[in-house]
Amino acid sequence: MSSWWEDPGTDWGTGRPGRVADVLSRAYETPQAIRPLIERTGLEWRAEYADAAARTTWIMILARAATSASVLDLMAEVLQDPSSETSHHPLEILLGPEQLRAVQGRRVLWYGASITLLESTAEPPDPGDRPLDALEAITSSAAGLSDPQAYMRAMNDAVRRLAMIQVGGRPRGTGVLVGPDLLITAAHVFDPRELPPPGLQDVDAVFDFFATPRRSPAETGTKVAVTEFICGSLPTPGELAGSRDFRAPPDRLDFALVRLAAPVPAPDGSARGHYPLSDTQYDFAAQAPLWVFQHPLGEFQKYSKISTPTRNAAGTRVRYRCNTMNGSSGGPVIDERGTLVALHHYSPGDINQGVPISAIAAMVRSGPHAALLNAGAAPPARARAADPFSVRELLGRPFVHRENLRRYVSEMAAPTGGRTLVITGARGSGITYSYSLLAHVASRSTITESLRQAAPAGLVAFTVNLRHYVNVPVAERRLRIIGDICVNLGLTGPHEPIAQEARNTTTFKHWLHSRLRHSDKQWWLFFDSLDDAVAAGQGGVNELIHAIIDLAQDPQIPLRVALGGRDADRFADGADAWPQRDTVSGLNAADVERWLRARAEDEGHHLDDARLSAELASLFPDGQPPPLPAQLAPRLPAVLVSLLEGGR
């Protein structure tokens, strides 16, 4: 192993390290070419780099990168850069097999890159190094002789096809692609006792959710909605009770096969591919290397190596030892050749357990969806993805009326739409809840055709609630808000210092302009709790908001600004002459009636008029002011259930 790559004491001016500096100085000859690469790696650009010759600059950069164990990170960025392609082969040879594998792994994790190892990544051996006949032996037949290219392809495929499952916006498990728009996971991720599972309208699969340089978790990943349950099987009662149940019958396989709203291309635009569901029994006794890929606790992608796999006599469960946590359920078990062999689903505490894919495939083949197992079979017709602007519930909570807000957000999302939205109303009228619609639309933007045309990489919405900054000293408030904006935009990490040019409002505006000008996302920034213009604007916050509104007026910048609060109008004055204005006036009986009837239709029911009138009379008593939305909305789900049950 070439330990000098990670040794802080390496002399990067001589020997093989010096050859690295030579290669890089030919590929990147000017400070203008070097600096973006350094910043993408997360290294600090220093003034002395700009004044030195290219080779000297690279020696200094490599030495500093070595002190923070970032040299291989830097090499990953170089190999990912198509402009330096002529340097890639020499660098791969200098890296050698061990270091190259580590670098390629970084490319897979950061960029979803499709990696194919070179046929040879080492210099040709001296003829005297050739092995002699009869001096080598097979001493462990189970160890085999593994193909490194197959190994890298297997890892690459798993990274591209893995998804974190979110239910109601919260991480619940892991899933994997088994068709262009088909995902499989553990049934209990959705519901351990009911199939089809309720509430699929709130389920998303998030692909590419891995640690990515210069991106916050909020903007990491490619989200696509789950739109249809196809088939599945529940876990056993013993597994639900947490007992050691290894004798599962063939109709208790704990899996759910679901359809996505659309196929999800990889970040580089290529097809992700998918794993076939094969009913051929896998030979777990051969002890081939196996891994569980997963999103434990809703974290970035992880994998754990499996040991001692054992299948039960019925072929319905396989046990093994590895590391998993809540959220790992539904993770694929993959062998070194990239074969999907099992679905992880359970642990009673001291052992892990999965369901062999062969058993799942046999169940699917015996049912009405057998055509899904046939390669190239045409997928059945799929219902159009729901219009995100027409949503009636958000995270299980009613979203009633707000037709003006829905229309304004839809219009503003268009490339030629307005740039500023002002939302005003009385306390408790639902101003803050307006952000929920923005977040929902953003979560569906990559699968909504009109939004994809406006922003190919989707919408990102985040909120700055000024109420959360009341305990921050006035003198520090503006800088704290700038820092939070930078984190949500993915321009800095949560604990990174703010760039010097971003600390002043005027220079921050120009700095932000340069960062967002070429973004393929559309950004929505919602300033909330603008209830007192004087108090909320203290410490330069008013000037900051005006600067951001002014920046959003530039057609080159894909930025939209929403202002919410009783005094929001005053913040918009002078910054945008034509903002969209939405006044939240509360809910009336007609609004609630329309919502209840629409939700009943969603469930395939019609409400009894007399019972509905009685419920509305109870919610809106004669002679009394209507209840505030914040008080009324939580009561509506129970009212809906009562009406549905009474009509059966």
From TrEMBL:
InterPro entries tied to this protein: Peptidase_S1_PA (IPR009003), Peptidase_S1_PA_chymotrypsin (IPR043504), Peptidase_S1B (IPR008256)
Supply the EC number(s).
3.4.21.-
Q: Does the keyword Calcium apply?
A: no
Q: Report the enzyme's class at the first EC level.
A: hydrolase
> Which keywords describe this protein according to UniProt?
Hydrolase, Protease, Serine protease, Signal
Question: Which residues fall in a coiled-coil region?
Answer: none
Q: Which GO terms describe its biological process?
A: proteolysis
Q: Does the keyword Signal apply?
A: yes
| Source superkingdom | Bacteria
One term of GO molecular function: serine-type peptidase activity
One Pfam family per UniProt: Trypsin_2
| Family per similarity comment | Belongs to the peptidase S1B family.
Q: What is the protein name given in its UniProt record?
A: Serine protease
Q: What is the originating organism of this protein?
A: Acrocarpospora macrocephala
